[in-house]
């Protein structure tokens, strides 16, 4: 299925956020938003994704 990740269409076989994280090999500190709603990491496995869902992957920024 096609989902939109950070504004770019991408094909995935994942059916939930946990599977998507594994598929994309995302590591380190990050947060995910699904259709503009942040999802706690504890809910990734229970959060299904569907065709055309919008997913934003956000990494923390440091600076000053």
Summarize the structure.
The chain is α+β, with helices and mostly antiparallel strands and 64 residues long. It has one helix spanning 17-24, and strands spanning 2-5, 8-11, 31-34, 37-39, 54-58.
Spatial order of the strands forming the largest sheet? 2-1-5-3-4
Terminus-to-terminus distance: 40 Å
The stretches of 5 or more residues where confidence is low (pLDDT under 50) are: none
Helix and strand content put the structural class at: alpha+beta
Helix tally equals 1
**Total E-strand runs:** 5
Structure description:
The chain is of the alpha+beta class and 64 residues long. It is 12% helix and 31% strand. The protein contains one helix and five strands, in the order E-E-H-E-E-E. It has a five-stranded mixed sheet with strand order 2-1-5-3-4, with no helix packed on it. A hairpin with a 2-residue loop joins strand 1 and strand 2. The protein is globular, with a radius of gyration of 12 Å. 6% of the residues are buried. The model has no long low-confidence stretch (mean pLDDT 95).
